[in-house]
């Protein structure tokens, strides 16, 4: 999307504003499927938590993608698109047996990540096939908060507990139809996936009725010019070969699954914010925008880098700015960043804002959630209205009460 188009959208819908380019989403989806074209059965399940607007989910459904969910509410969102329940996989962490049972009633593929719930579910519903999430004890990911496959992680069943899984299966008569893992996000080294694949193949060999192996995701995308990313094509060559060999050995063409989120939508999204104030201090020039970590928390939560450009003055002389928000605590998007000269009222564009940006936004400071726009074949569509005060007040109940406690005679005497 060109600067002129983005500026027009900011003028049309106001700021702050999220904009998603579906051409980029589709190209990333095709890139991943093409990388694994030698695998007979490949299925991508888009990770809904990355960006959960129902129009984005519908777009993925139309591409032929399945959907990966982590909550009952995400499953409900997915079903509004008309997707078949069997094309949804439910991969929660530490949820109650009740929630898993509610999802199972809908016909969704269940993925269980702990022995306690696995045994309880198997005792009550042995007729429902389930996938199990394995913790491969591999440290991977661009940040400790998104590394989820190491030995101290809360996610998955340890590879050393596979005998326990087999005992539960034997005692309950339940059927394990899939093996799953997810080691982390922003994984650069494809050897991480290959090491984990060997672990999953060893686990899968111990079960007779496996229909699929889900390798999770975590592919790294570039965040700035010259940045490095996961070599998807090379991973496709090496992992496909190993997977096809396993299918031959297993005697069955099972399905290779991934659950990409950031890889598919990160680069497709931008966040537009207007500059309220340019403030010179004794040491820093601040560009204060009409947003904060209530709308884009990743830089504060993960120290994530988002490339920032001034689309109002893209050819201006470069200067150095700290881009900050309007929240009543420190909310710094970028420190001492080189950006084309900024003036008040300019619109700044935050790149790689498609994944874990709007989906992690909040009403902190009672600020409104921004609007969302989707661009399809060059045409823009408003897919979420900007919030109003009525939206914030909608579920709050007004009660009548006295603000002062009445003092009793006994309390006065005491």
TrEMBL record:
Pathway stated in the Swiss-Prot or TrEMBL entry: Amino-acid biosynthesis; L-lysine biosynthesis via DAP pathway; L-lysine from DL-2,6-diaminopimelate: step 1/1
| Organism of origin | Polaribacter reichenbachii
Which residues of the sequence carry a binding annotation for substrate?
A: 298, 302, 329, 356
Q: Which residues carry this modification: N6-(pyridoxal phosphate)lysine?
A: 49
Q: What does this protein do?
A: Specifically catalyzes the decarboxylation of meso-diaminopimelate (meso-DAP) to L-lysine.
Catalyzed reaction equations: meso-2,6-diaminopimelate + H(+) = L-lysine + CO2
According to the entry, every stretch annotated as the Orn/DAP/Arg decarboxylase 2 C-terminal domain falls at 18-354
Protein's gene: lysA
Which InterPro entries does the protein's record reference? Ala_racemase/Decarboxylase_C, DAP_deCOOHase_LysA, De-COase2_C, De-COase2_N, Orn/DAP/Arg_de-COase, PLP-binding_barrel
* Family to which the UniProt record says this protein belongs: Belongs to the Orn/Lys/Arg decarboxylase class-II family. LysA subfamily.
What cofactor does this protein call for? pyridoxal 5'-phosphate
Signal peptide extent: none
Name of the protein described by the UniProt record: Diaminopimelate decarboxylase
Give the EC number(s) under which this enzyme is classified: 4.1.1.20
How does the record describe its quaternary structure? Answer: Homodimer.
